[in-house]
Specification:
Elements (H helix, E strand, L loop, with lengths): L11 H17 L4 H7 L4 H9 L18 H13 L6 H15 L2 H13 L4 E4 L15 E5 L2 E12 L6 E7 L9 E7 L5 E6 L10 E12 L10 H37 L1 E2 L2 E2 L4 H29 L5 H25 L10 H9 L9 H10 L2
Parallel strand pairs: 1-4
Antiparallel strand pairs: 2-3, 3-7, 4-5, 6-7, 8-9
Helix pairs in contact: 1-4, 4-7, 5-6, 5-7, 7-8, 7-9, 7-10, 8-9, 9-10, 9-11
């Protein structure tokens, strides 16, 4: 269990909410994790149960069926989900897609989609990455050409979280290829629309229970009214929303790092070698002491970043620095903790093996950590 005794970012109401999140995960998540890892996807019913429990889209205003809370409630879910050892895509749904709809959606779009997202009736994804374009979103090739009062979409996306479950996808497409960044738009595409196809559920190193897919668009016709916000403003919208996405990743990374550390402490205090516990060796104690110090710094920094974001003050550079630092810590903590498990750490029956596998990609998605350094360097 995460220790909250020294946290500063959360209110008593958020602490109470955390208790309800933990109870829900104990009941509806943890008993199924091993099966979901084997099957490569979580049960679709989990989305509905999470919606019923009030765990989806905390920041959606009451006018659209949500509770109208601040990001601190999202952070609680992010942390508890990661600490439980799960990579379920509900955080992308709540922390990223929902805020795009709230910030840029028309009244009709918000009134129709947001209540369904809050309840879990509609699962969502955002399709940015393509086979030939990752962190450089200006390099996308998926097009949305006007044809009367419709767009016609053609192209493909890959590595899309929630790709199998998603009922609604925000597709990043070029509406004016000659206009560069100003020719990028965000288009809402429903999974039932003709010409839209889900590819295979991708076979990944980690994140096994999170469905990650290829998506294909073959002359998909969607109404012009499915444009999210203004045509040509998609790239600006993406840049505006990236700080919250990167903070969300940082929250999960810090919690996963803590869980890896806690697993290592438990294992080394129990395991005997050469007549004493593994914990009693100086190398073990020094390794854990080093991690404990970095985790202490990490939690203090994360609370600072959460508070700044809630106040509307977190900059793009600060969010990028948070994503960079906390994901690097996550990898260090998971790798060192697996080493302290010895051969047991390489066995999938131990949680540390899953935490280690899942940690590898967090330095890649949401913008690679090399890109994070580039963003931070521009602010210096």
């Amino acid at each position: 269990m995460l220790d909250l005794s020294r946290r500063t970012a959360f209110t008593p109401e958020q602490d109470q909410f955390r208790d309800s999140v933990r109870r829900f995960f104990d009941r509806e998540l943890i008993p199924h994790l091993s099966r979901w890892e084997e099957e490569g996807i979580i049960d679709r019913a989990f989305w509905n149960k999470a919606g019923e429990a009030g765990l989806l889209c905390p920041t959606v205003p009451e006018a659209y069926g949500g509770p109208g809370l601040d990001f601190g409630f999202n952070a609680v879910i992010d942390e508890e989900l990661a600490y439980a050892g799960s990579t379920a895509g509900i955080t992308l749904h709540s922390d990223i897609v929902a805020d795009y709809l709230v910030a840029y959606g028309s009244e009709e779009q918000k009134s129709y989609w947001l209540p369904r997202m809050v309840s879990g009736e509609t699962a969502t994804a955002i399709a940015m990455t393509e086979p030939g374009a990752g962190s450089d979103l200006q390099g996308i090739r998926t097009s949305a050409k006007r044809d009367g009062n419709h767009y016609v979409l053609n192209g493909s996306k890959t590595y899309i979280t929630n790709g199998q479950h998603a009922d609604l996808v925000i597709v990043v497409a070029k509406t004016d290829p000659a206009a560069g960044a100003k020719g990028v738009s965000l288009i809402l595409v429903e999974a039932t629309q003709e010409g839209y196809a889900k590819g295979r559920n991708l076979d990944k190193i980690g994140f096994h229970s999170q469905d990650t897919s290829e998506l294909f668009f073959n002359d998909v016709r969607v109404p012009i009214t499915n444009c999210l916000g203004e045509e040509g403003s998609g790239f600006a919208y993406l840049m505006n929303q990236l700080p919250q996405e990167r903070l969300s990743i940082a929250c999960a990374a810090q919690a996963a790092a803590q869980r890896a550390f806690d697993e290592a402490v438990k294992f080394t205090k129990d395991r005997k070698a050469f007549g004493k516990t593994v914990f009693d060796f100086q190398n073990t104690k020094f390794t854990l002491a080093d991690l404990a110090a970095k985790l202490q710094v990490g939690w203090a920094h994360l609370d600072w970043a959460i508070a700044r974001h809630i106040a509307g003050e977190l900059t793009a550079a600060e969010a990028s620095a948070a994503k960079l630092w906390h994901t690097e810590l996550q990898w260090e903590a998971c790798d060192a903790s697996l080493q302290l498990h010895g051969g047991a750490g390489y066995m999938n029956e131990y949680l540390i093996a899953r935490l280690w596998r899942d940690a590898r990609v967090t330095r890649i998605f949401g913008g690679t950590n090399e890109i994070m350094k580039e963003v931070v360097s521009r602010s210096i």
